[in-house]
Design a protein that fits this description.
Shape: elongated
Oligomer: single chain
CATH class of the largest domain: Alpha Beta
CATH superfamily of the largest domain: P-loop containing nucleotide triphosphate hydrolases
Helix content: 25-40%
Strand order of the largest sheet: 5-6-7-3-8-9
Radius of gyration: 24 Å
Length: 317
């Protein structure tokens, strides 16, 4: 099956600056998070896929076709850019309908699609506000609505949650997941890692215009075999007569006898942090060992198994 987006050997220069350098990646259906520090080339990549820029070298293909010789592929693409430029006197419904009309829909169909899209992003109540009267979050939702009103198979979202309040952010995150579940190819650029992690497990990480990693967060983390995992264990007393620190010391001593446990550090009277080279084995063995020792675990977390830890390592190395 042809990938919705294929980027091969792409280079993009702005003067002497290489915004993208020999970039290769493919995107399939579902949500993919696009990550990287400021200036890494994220927005440039989105603009290249959207046809707003041409690559200086390499090729961009949408469903196997060159968008510059087959511009009809753009009818199946929606984009929510980071920067916005609105017709400020238009009402939200009018703006979304006008932009949808440019896709070739009749006026009536464009208005109906605009209403559905505004409803989907939570703007139905405020659709008749003029753009200049809207808050930043409302403007952001309206911009999101125009990206999906024509029902595109490929959706590009550049910092789509910027300026939204916590409730709106939660609603839009749920909507982004829905778009992926519907089989669309959704590429989301964001600086807020925990929000990306709540949308998807698939990420693309770029730095200095080069691809650093692509794939499932868990799989990428397991490939970093030179980076051991830390596991934080919280304990509760085994009985009223036992001091919690006694259980912490007993568990630490028992764990240090296991091959995959490289270190055990007592954090405080009820917490222990261990270092392991095999997270899966540790997750299976630690609860069983605690049970055998009569020790109750109150919490079991790994600060090295999340997206933030993976991102930090990929960017810094």
């Amino acid at each position: 099956m042809t990938a919705p987006v294929a980027v091969h050997g792409v280079r993009k220069l702005f003067g002497q600056v290489r915004a993208l350098d020999e970039l290769d990646l493919e995107l399939g259906p579902g949500v993919t998070g696009l990550l990287g520090p400021n200036g890494s080339g994220k927005s440039t990549l989105i603009k290249l896929i959207a046809g707003q820029l041409r690559p200086d070298a390499g090729v961009v293909r949408l469903w196997g076709r060159d968008p510059f010789t087959c511009p009809e592929v753009f009818a199946d693409l929606g984009i929510c850019p980071e920067q916005d430029r609105f017709y400020e006197d238009l009402r939200g419904r009018e703006l979304v309908a006008a932009l949808t009309r440019l896709q070739g829909f009749s006026a009536a169909d464009a208005r109906a699609r605009a209403d559905r899209a505004l409803e989907r992003v939570g703007m139905a109540t405020y659709a008749d506000k003029r753009m200049r009267e809207m808050s930043r979050g409302m403007r952001q939702r309206t911009k999101f609505a125009q990206a999906i009103a024509h029902d595109p198979a490929l959706v590009l979202l550049d910092e789509p949650l910027s300026g939204t309040d916590p409730i709106a952010r939660a609603d839009l995150i749920a909507l982004i997941r829905e778009l992926g579940d519907e089989g669309r190819c959704v590429l989301v650029s964001s600086h807020v890692l925990h929000e990306v992690e709540s949308m998807t497990r698939e990420v693309v990480v770029i730095r200095h215009g080069r691809l650093r990693a692509q794939g499932d967060i868990t799989r990428l983390r397991t490939l970093l075999d030179d980076r051991p995992y830390r596991i934080r264990l919280g304990l509760t007393p085994s009985d009223a007569a036992t001091a919690p620190e006694a259980d912490v010391r007993r568990l630490a001593a028992a764990l240090l006898g296991r091959a995959q446990i490289k270190a055990a550090t007592i954090v405080d009277a009820s917490a222990l942090e261990i270092t392991t080279t095999d997270l899966d084995a540790a997750c299976l063995e630690i609860p069983a060992l605690a049970r055998d020792l009569g020790i109750a675990l109150a919490s079991f977390t790994s600060p090295d198994a999340d997206l933030e830890s993976l991102y930090r390592y990929l960017i810094q190395r």
